[in-house]
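#struct-queue
[09:14] JT: dropping the first one here, sequence first, then the structure tokens:
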Amino acid sequence: MTEFLSRKEVESISKWMLDEALRGGASGADVLYSEGAGSGLSLKDGEIEECVTGFTAGIGVRTIMSDGRQGISYGNRLDKFSLRELVEWSLFNCRNSEPEEGIMLYEGKLVSDPSLDLEDPEITAITPQKRMELCRVMTESAMAADSSILSVRSASWHDGWGSSFYCTSTGLEGWERGSSANCGVSVIASDGKNTEMGGHGEESRRLDELDIRKIALKAVDKTVSALGGTPMKTGPYTIVIEPETAASLVDVIGELFCAPEIHKGRSLMAERLNSKVASSCVTLVDDGRIPWKAGTGSWDAEGVPTGRTLLIKDGIACSYLYNLQYAWKDGVASTGNACRGMSSLPDVGTSNLLLQAGSETPLSLISGVGCGLYLTELMGLHTIDPISGDFSVGAKGQLIENGKITKPVSGVTIASNLMDFLNSIVAVGSDLTFFGSTAAPTLVVENIVVAGE
């Protein structure tokens, strides 16, 4: 598909589907239409490995019965016959589902906020020639950065745009459009005895935020610094966690504040509001209205305006994240954190998740550690038990001795409890960095057991 329907056509068929759903017996319905296009290029040692361009468009309809049953169907054929079938399948799924409490449609207004800057014209204007230039520069920068680089296994660039229309039988309707780009470099390095493969990538809604040379150099630095890693002696250490690895932990923590996880008994944050869950230097925020960021939008998947929710303030748990259903269950307002696709019912998810920065530089934090581990990678975070918080994960990094990074460390394991871990954070760096929709600074955590040799 290379052409999309006009906005007027999309609005017309969406409203027709709503009317068909109500005529079919639904008490309420909503329609989500999505379209977009993207292109990507990947070079392997300077030669084209992949070159793709794609277009997509689809529509999903959700029907709701007065007793709380709901059903959904979706497709990418937009002729009248196919659309009628989608409504019929949605009603069929709805009638055969189980009733749930709190199922409703938002009755406010959709208000688009242009100041959120969701689209960068510089990204949508990128040509195939420009993608090739960007990938070649990343390849050349990586090869020239260090003599130990044997191969640039991948230098890749992807960019695209997406647009969506949402409307409901309660009268909501609105369009939102955005763009984004991402790039990455992976390399193989060798010192003659040891070989290591690694890389680095970034994404942004703004073209000028992607420094391709810096990204290539970081990929090289991360890979070369890991060459020849060996286990450190088993024992309790102070660990300094670099921002990207810290962000992966923040993602895990954010999920624990989603209301469905609380209600289903799958979060250690259950019944902990207004109690201490982390050290006083930890403040965690979910904010769906930060201009240019990946998790930003004027409204959530139910049409509720996005906002800023304080999850942890100075170590104290403050709030959970809600959609309409779970907000109704807890007698609170939705935080604007509903998420869904064309083929899924509304759930709850984070938007832009930030562990707020402190005042010290990373160098200052490292210089204060006598013997510890500079942590650059955690493996197996998905195995953290969300109920007990217990975890044991693989780790890589570099040894810190007398305030200086000395040699690479690999083949070690970190075992702890997530709540104990949060309460053991003693310092937060000033280097807040976004990785997609999650941001974190350097963290310092004391008395963490590292199992090595």
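[09:21] JT: and here's the second one, same format:
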Amino acid sequence: MERFAFIIHPLSAKDVARQYPVAKYLPDRLVEWAITHKDPFVVSHITGIRAADGTEAEGWFIGCPLTPRQLLSLPEEEVWKRLVIAARLAEERGAKIMGLGAFTSVVGDGGVTLSKRVKIAITTGNSYTVATAVQGARRAAEMLEIPQHEARVAIVGATGSIGKTCAKVMARDYPEIVLVGRSVEKLEALAAEIREGSAAHVSISTSVADSLPSADIVVTVSSAVDAIVLPEHLKPGAVVCDVARPRDVSVRVARERDDVLVIEGGVVDPPGEVDFHFDFGFPPGKAYACMSETMALALAGRYESFTLGKDVSVEQVDEITAMAESQGFRLSGFRSFERAVDDADIERIIENARNRRGTKQPA
């Protein structure tokens, strides 16, 4: 039996109510103050993972009771202290690798420092997150009848560890890429790197409002605490793959734009009959890609720090993709704002987009 662990944390103060129901009735600041006084703890035992070759694995969710705002604002040493405690809890249960969920993979140097302070292997899961984001965006674009040979792709948060690798991978298949971020210097450096190895036309932008209205496909992976993609930013018929947690895409999009498809990035069906014994917002048996990378490495006996730091190579993405597929991991059906997307939804979006563009559906 292979063993792993994965760190989870509340995505907002109200998310603490998943573990402590009273939190839904308390002010956010009071909830955040309270959880700063609680150490990491074992949330649940994960069972039922079985690869195509029969290899089995079990794991544990380790809860780090800090919100994204706290993870980014507290002194780094305080955050490292919590993560080291989490790693020791994992080690005590026999886990040999631990994945960093959500903002625990963003804070500091992306797990490099943590890996030097603990005995257990560490991975951010970002390689498989990139792989599934690209797969999901490509599949959704095909379903919305977006021609690949003329599609314009925008990557929001392009200079982050996930964003820049998404851009490199998508530049292999799409003719036009726009990189959206805050630092012109970093954007220009990334654009130059992509141009060296790709025939795609690459441009940069520091404005979501200016760059998204002409994009057919949007992959958004920023580390923003609040939503940055609004209804007025999107082109009719566009696909938006939101990989960020908390979400980059405003819930207003679901209410106001019935002519675009927003999908949650990185939703995976692990092999076997996995039971997480904890409700983290997904239907039973479905996992985030970052969780799945940790599981896949455990099933393969690859107890190594596979994805660390702020850089993810295209080679790592290709390797983890092949590994996970051979074990039986599969990209799940689309979900949008916590609900499943079916064929009827796709047809409605296509029709609404045609109407909004002022064109008629062909006979």
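[09:30] RK: nice, looked through the second one.
[09:31] RK: The mean pLDDT is 91.
[09:31] JT: good to know. Residues 351 and 361 are 7 Å apart (CA to CA).
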